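A protein record in our archive is deliberately plain, so that people and models can read it alike. The record that follows is passed on verbatim for readers who wish to inspect the format.
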Amino acid sequence: MSSVLTETTSRAGASSEVVANDFSLQVATANGSGSQTANSVLMRSIFRMGVPVSGKNLFPSNIQGLPTWFTIRANKDGYIARKRDLDVLVCMNPETADDDVREARAGAFVVYEKKLGLENPGRKRDDLTYYAVPFSELVVKITSAPEHAKLRKLIVNMVYVGVVADLMGIDPEETEKAIAKQLKGKPKAIDLNITAARLGLDYAKANFPSKIPFRVERMNATQGKIIIEGNTAAALGCVFGGATVCAWYPITPSSSLCESFIDFCDDLRIDPVTKKKNVAIIQAEDEIASIGMVLGAAWAGARSFTSTSGPGISLMSEFIGLGYYAEIPAVIFDIQRVGPSTGLPTRTMQGDILLCYFNSHGDTKHPVLFPASPEECFTMAQEAFDLAEQLQCPIFVLSDLDLGMNTWMSDAFPYPTSPLKRGKVLDADAIAKLKGGWGRYKDVDGDGIPYRTLPGTPNAYAAYFTRGSGHDEKAQYTEKPQDWVNNVNRIARKFDTARTMVPKPEIQDPFHAPAGILAYGTSHYGSTEARDKLAKDFGVQLDYCRLRALPINAEAADWMRRHERIYVVEQNRDAQLVTILRDEFPELATRFVPVRQYNGLPLDATTVIEGVLGDRDQQKQKRTA
């Protein structure tokens, strides 16, 4: 696949050719050094110039000291997936500088702390362009006062923002506005950081007449858009989705979802008369307790949720089985990280699909939603609460670290206009009309979904006993084999009903080609970029389907039947979605070709291109053998 890589490394190089609004920039620092603010300012400055942008933070799982990398992808065409090859590097960390430079593509540009000596004999690469900046010396000029001494390691980061702004054509005015927004309400900090950025800008102007050819030029592609993390968007969706109970136990990378929910509730869940909060938020002693609290609250009629990651799902499994069999609504956000075991807590993965889809012992299947953007984190959070109550079961929302914790450009969220969908809930009058003929687990409508009542309904016939052991359609205890079969078969019918209710796939068939790419979640971005490049650079035309939920509905099934070769893009080792597809569509089993990335980094388009071209080469060899 060298032709793929050659294409990405030939742009600009060490020549003076200008490449506008199409680059990947990486800043290498140490965790806990205060670089997050500077990196956010850098990304937001580009965004303010109207250029589509995304930011991905690669950070260690310890508290402080280990290396961290922040990558900014800017692209005039809106491609925001991680790019495998970097165009510009900012090296501030002596622990990783040599490796960062060694791994840089030929023709890249390196801005670095001068005392690192990256251009010393034996270390310098002749195929890179260097910009040595004495950052540690410059920052002393503005932090010489005793009260500023401790701030030097923080302020130095804003100096590299100024240097990069000059070298790449970022408007200093936008940088200063971004600083003011990032540090809103802290006038002294704003002034000091603006001074630092100007210091870097002036140094670069005076010392580097030859600029980096990867330039930022004004566009108008970000008007009306926002920058937000997926976890924050999901938390806001929970508020608008009517959630009044949140029970959780902290775990990376999901904690910020519940923390954001707390912040939103401080403003939006306050009784206007009593001024007291009308929401219950509990940090439980562990994940097992948290899901138990969620199910208890939902049984009582509240919209409740928890947020966790793979290890937490493992602990919750028995309670999730109770929710499935006793048919209790619940919403579970799984912000996936690399497993198994502790794994890589601060790396991304799509490795919990089988875990969630079939969670708990015995015969179980659960609806799973796959948001791919902050906007979908917002809207699917609301849909999840509706589906949980309509289907009377746990609903999983599978995000991942990349979507949940990284910063994304997004359209403004649509304000909800539809009322909450509570599903089949009987009130006292409805119970009275049935005159004792109601059964909690009785399928009246043929869709597998029974009617339920809520505690406190003022009718004696509304009461029933909720149990996870054998029960019949009237919720009475039974161990009769046929009662068991009848009940679990009804629940299976309910799962088939879910196929008509979960979000439909996004289908793009511009070519009506015999082959296509199928992706889900954050794999969408690398997949669509790869599809476009395959058509443009290699003449390979592929259709596209983004799966937005399980179980698979008719539209997705029809799309798969129309295509003879389906490249299923996943971020896990074992092709977990392919396993599900082959199980549910055995007649199509040979059509599914796994394209996988599972190194903990967000998916890049090059991986997809290599997977598709590699399979086509293999198929060609088989035909000519």
Summary: The chain has 20 helices and 22 strands. Residues 187-207 form the longest helix (21 residues).
